[in-house]
Design goal:
The strands form two sheets. This protein has a seven-stranded mixed beta sheet with strand order 3-4-7-8-9-10-11, with helices on both faces. Strands 1-2-6-5 form a four-stranded mixed beta sheet. The chain has a single domain, classed as pyruvate-formate lyase- activating enzyme (Alpha-Beta Horseshoe). It is about 35% helix and about 15% strand. The protein is globular, with a radius of gyration of 20 Å. The N and C termini lie far apart (about 50 Å).
Amino acid sequence: MEIAPLLFDLGRKPPTTRQVADLVRARGAEALAEAERRADAARYQEVRCRSALNRVKGMPFQWTLNPYRGCTHGCHYCYARRYQTQFELGADDDFASIIFVKTNVVDVLRRELARPSWRGEYVALGTATDCYQPIEGYYRLTRGALEALRDYRNPVGVVTKGPMIVRDTDVLVDLTKGPGCGVYVSVPTVDEEAWRLLEPGTAPPLQRLRAVRELVDAGIRAGVLMNPIVPGITSKPALLERTMKAIADHGARFVGCNVMFLEGGTRDHFMRWLAQEFPHLVDGYNQLYAGKYAPPAYRKEVRNVIGLLRRQYGVNGRDEDDDGKETPDSQGKAQDAGDPESPPDQPIFQW
């Protein structure tokens, strides 16, 4: 394979994602030494994408859009960690410290939305890595994408942990009044200790909930995903109740909830982290996660508790307030579809 020696030289066009993957495969992550390092210590590599909209299967939606790859939020349970392995990068620190920025994503998106063959299908934004991670304040690619979807009257759902989303309230209001829009803010727990350990690069949970309140007050359909519930860490009933109460107090239109799943590089990373921070839980996790999902009986038990708390605090379920729209909650729908890897007689580790 031939790699241009001046691939990252100043003044040249950003490489394509495929060129970056080939380069890292040949030379390792150190080949990205020219990627711009910012104050957060992460390195940002600008790339060109050939497509903006990605067709997906097995989800409650058919199209996704992700302006960035990699995420400085660095959540230890994040299922997107495994996607870094497609670039021959690790699912550990590389995921949170090497971020690919698709600088031409808005232009490409507009071309795709303008095609006669495009039918205006629902697009889920930010399902792989957070579209409102801090670098969005500089590149504004997510805002540009929302403006394009508004201009082409295309429905959209946005998933994020970033309170920065309130910056784009004006565009989200336009989308809400037009083709349709839903905002899904991830707040797995309001416990500050669990938050600091599990989600080291994110905004505090209450700051995210204040963003939900601001969006709802502006007339936007915004709610909370308590995803994922992490067994033994955020799954305690008293903590679930505290979180549900806080969600209700901030006016969320709905709340969705699912138990963490583990696969690929994410599983390896999470189990190493668990052994360091909660070594007493490792044996239980080896029982609970014989497959990538916790057993159906365990997940059902959690859903029952959440259902009781919803009714107690008067918060709709995700599907009770979806206005007929599809919801970009890939983790939840995948689990609810059934799990052949977790047979019914699998022992359940109770927390």
